[in-house]
Amino acid sequence: MSMEDKLGELLLDWDKRRQQGEEVSADTICEDCPELVPTLRRHIAELKATDWMFEPDDDEDDDFLSLPDFQTALIHRDDTAEISTSLSFDEFLTFRTVV
Q1: pLDDT reported for residue 42
Q2: Domain-embedded: residue 95
Q3: Distant-in-sequence, close-in-space partners of 6: CB < 8 Å, separation ≥ 6
Q4: Is the terminal CB of the chain with fewer CB neighbours within 10 Å at N or C?
Q5: Are 15 and 47 in contact (CB under 8 A)?
Q6: 10-residue block means of pLDDT along the chain (99 residues)?
């Protein structure tokens, strides 16, 4: 088994134990392969740094589901951007060629 495969198995074991509520150190997991302890520590720290992504979002303003739907956006649209014109298409073409 390669070092990468062994490291992957150790990380999976660490994650499985962690999900069960058991905090295990890299030293404990790597008792039979102490040469992998520094690398495993680094990978565990990197995984722990991503924990914030799995925490529930308490701020409803940034929640995707709390954003207005398309119908609500249509009701509250800004009508000031609409420009009305009484030019026909032919008049527009004539005006365009004059300018």
Answers
A1: 92
A2: no
A3: 33, 36
A4: C
A5: yes
A6: 88 90 89 89 89 69 57 57 67 68
Tokens of 2: 């390669």
40, 7 contact by CB (below 8 A): yes
Take residue 93 and report the two structure tokens written for it: 């073409």
Read off φ and ψ for residue 91, nearest 5 degrees: -65, -40
Q: Is the whole-model pTM more than 0.70?
A: no
Phi–psi pair at 84, nearest 5 degrees: -95, 145
- Domain interval for residue 16: 3-58
Q: Residue 54's closest CA among 86, 83, 18, 78?
A: 18
